[in-house]
Amino acid sequence: MIRWNKRGTEEASLSFIVGVIIAILLSSTIFLVVIQWYQTTTKAEQSFDALVDIIATIEDKEKGSMAFSLPNNDILVSFQNGQDHPEEGDCDEVVDVPTSCGTVPCICLCSTKFSEYEDACTKNSVECYAFTEQKEYVFSDAVCDGGSLYREGTSNGIFTLFYEKEGNTIKFCEGSCEKPAS
Question: What percent of the chain is predicted at pLDDT more than 70?
């Protein structure tokens, strides 16, 4: 039943309009959160795919850099010959090698959001790539004092990854892979 107030308008229409506005605002907020999560996830995967392409096609003595998207709770890590990633230099986290890497050089994009670092790639692997055609590759990271590649996501989600190939070694560096002048 419609009730009219003294001015001759419906009381129900005002509360209906307020309800519709609240529903639209709530739906918009949920939609934006889902879009933000999707974009963050796909940017990291796109960066990972671009890095794999670079590693697979890099020539000896070639150097370069790329913008790499890596959200705060993700890690980029390499494994050698089916071995767990050891504690090395400033890289003080042991990470278990996932079975998808087998016994060849491998890099993985993993999430630490719901697990310890040790299990990040065995329980929450976002993506891994085993270099079956480049079995002789060795990954080296200046951040880890020359040990295997290990990078944690940054608070802003993006950083510059510098790389260089010397023989069978793919080096990753902070700033530049240039050797300091002696």
Answer: 75
